[in-house]
Structures are given as structure tokens and as C-alpha cells.
Amino acid sequence: MAFITCIVLSILALTGIGAAAIWLGARWMHAGRTRFGAALVAAVLILLCNLFLLTVKMAWDDAHPPNTHLEFDTRIARSVLLAIVGLVGSIVIIKVAMKTSLAKAAFAWLLHGVAGLGFAVLVVRPFLLESYVIPAASMAPTLMGWHHTAVCPRCQQTLRVPHRTRALPGDDKRLTVAICDNYHSFDYYQLNGMEIEESWQPQDRLMADKTSMPGRWQLAVFKYPDDPTETYVKRVVGLPGEEVWIDDGAVWINGQRQTPPGELRDLEYLSGQTIAGSEVYGRKDAPLLLGPNEYFMLGDLSRMSSDSRFWGPVPRDAIIGVGALRYWPPSRWKVLD
Among 73, 146, 214, 296, which has the minimal tally of Cβ within 10 Å of its Cβ? Predict the structure, then answer.
């Protein structure tokens, strides 16, 4: 898979650049050991150390759901603590690997940090890969923000209840929806009587592949057309030059009903003249003809999604890449087709 290859090559390049920087720093400072192999071992160990610390930070973040309060100073203190641990750990690794003093190891680490950060900022993030935290539930259950869980009464799979739409006690007017891992959705009244877990499930984190363009049914990461400072993730259903409309819960392309593949087969979309009082694009009585560089995007949780039904197609140049990997939390790790 091209995406996995991109990740592997990025890690290898980052490790190689880091090793070269450590090696040059060691030679420059006349360290006791200046072999490139030792520098490579140090670079690998530093990478593993940093990945471990990143995992700790994400786990700490997950320990504080939306209904808990964590002082800003505490968050800063935790980040500073992890940074210090990473810094000291990296310098010690270089000191031992290159048989040198702490001062010389610190200089080699500085070169390593500058080179690695430069590669990440100038190459990886703009052109290859970028990570995103999912704050909301418009793409549920594929991508989740903070949520509760229950058991779906239709298929016994996990039912996910987004926290921002869960009705408060006595609030029977607020539209609340939940969706299970087999894409069966429920409104507030259907949730009444269900046993919903009080514990919080954390936000998903998504890795985007910037080397590819999305195809139909893939996830697209793109700049919101009405405000390019915002980044959205939706599913591509209509491709350039196609005529699109939604009817009977399904997407129709050029007069042909489209069947979602595999696990998406029960996915349904809301359609009609208006939804929540807003006139929509892509209706049966007014199909939308996409331009040569336009895509039609929909959210999986149709009742909660702001998507192309409301603000129209997305131009090609607004697309950042393909949502390819749900990598956190570990229990929801998945390569997304």
C-alpha cells in the first residue's frame, strides 16, 4: 500500500537524517566514537524514546474528557516535563552511543534536532503526512470525538453516542443521535431506555496521506470551502463530471444507485428538499452536476453532518489528502480504505 510505504520511507529518512547529524556532530566535537553505525543506533533509540513520550502524552490527554477540568498550567507543566525527559534522554543516548561528554552530546543532539525538525516541517508535513485530532462526530462511527458507548439493539455491535449531542436529563427537545459500528443510527427517543456507559471514550486521531487524491468512498481531508482556515474530513461520494443526488438513503451517480462497499453497506444519507430548515444540494428533483475539478462530500452520521448537501462541492485544490490511518486510541487502530 502506497500510504504504508510513505510512512516507512518517512521514518527511514528521518532516522537517516538524524543519524547523519549525530555523526557529523560527533566528528566535529571529536567524540570518543565517530562511527556512523553508532550514530544510527542513537538515532533509532531517540526515535523510539520520542514515540514513547508521544504515546504517554496522548494517554494523558485521554484521561481528561470534556466534563473534567484540568488547569491550563497543569497541561503546560506536563508538556514541559515530557520535553525535558525527551531532551535529557536523547542527550544521554548520544553520550553513551558516541562515548563522549554531556556537552559534546548536547551539541550533537542540537544538530540532530534541527535536521529532524527541518525535515518534518519542510518535507513531511507539507507534502507527505499530517496528523489530525477528531473533535466532533459528523463522521461517526468511522471517526469519533469524545463519546459514550452502548450496545446496538439491532446488531449487538458497539453503539457510539457523541458527547455534544447526548441529551441532558429532562431535555427531550434536543435532537440526539447515536450510531453503531454497522452504521445503524438512532435518535433521542430511540435512545430512551438504553443502558449507556457513563465512562468516556477518547477522540480518534487520524493520519492523512498527502501524496494521494481520494476516490469514491474514501475519506478526504480538505479545507472547508466557506472558511479555508478550517479543516474538514468527509467521505467522497461524487467525482468530477458526475451528476449527483441523494434519494431513499442512497447516493445516485448519473442515474445509477451506488452501493457502499464492504462494512459501509448499511450507510444511509438523509435527503429531501430541506434538512433542518436549510435547502440542500444534490436532491432528486435538482441533481448537482459536478464540474471538472469538483467533489461531493458527505459525513457518515448524516443527521449531524455539515457537508456538500449544505455548502456544495469541494474544489480539487482545497483537498489536502486522503484520511488513511486511524492510529489512536490503540483499540481503534485501523488502516482506512
Answer: 73
CATH class of domain segment(s) 205-335: mainly beta
The string of pLDDT tens digits covering residues 188-243 is 778 877 888 888 899 999 999 999 999 999 999 999 999 999 999 999 999 999 99
Residue 53: Cβ-neighbour burial (10 angstroms; 0-12, 13-18, 19+): middle
Q: What is the pLDDT of residues 1-10, one digit of tens each?
A: 678 889 999 9
The torsion region of residue 258 among left (phi > 0), alpha (psi -120 to 50) and beta comes to beta
Cell of 30: 571529536
Q: Is the dihedral of CA 209, 210, 212, 214 positive or negative?
A: positive
Residues 6+ apart with CB under 8 A from 186: 159, 177, 178, 179
> Do 128 and 311 touch, CB atoms closer than 8 A?
no
Strand bridging mode 178-180 / 185-186: antiparallel
Q: Where are the domains of the chain?
A: 2-132, 205-335
Kindly give, in sequence order, each residue whose CB lies less than 8 Å from that of residue 108, ignoring residues fewer than 6 positions away. Answer: 21, 22, 25, 26, 29, 31, 94, 98, 100
State how far the Cα of 107 lies from the Cα of 248, in Å rounded to an integer: 65
pLDDT, mean of residues 255-264: 92
Q: Does the predicted model carry a pTM greater than 0.85? A: yes
Residue 40 and residue 21: Cα distance in Å, rounded? 10
Assign 186 a pLDDT band (cuts: 50, 70, 90).
Answer: confident
Region 308-336: mean pLDDT is 95
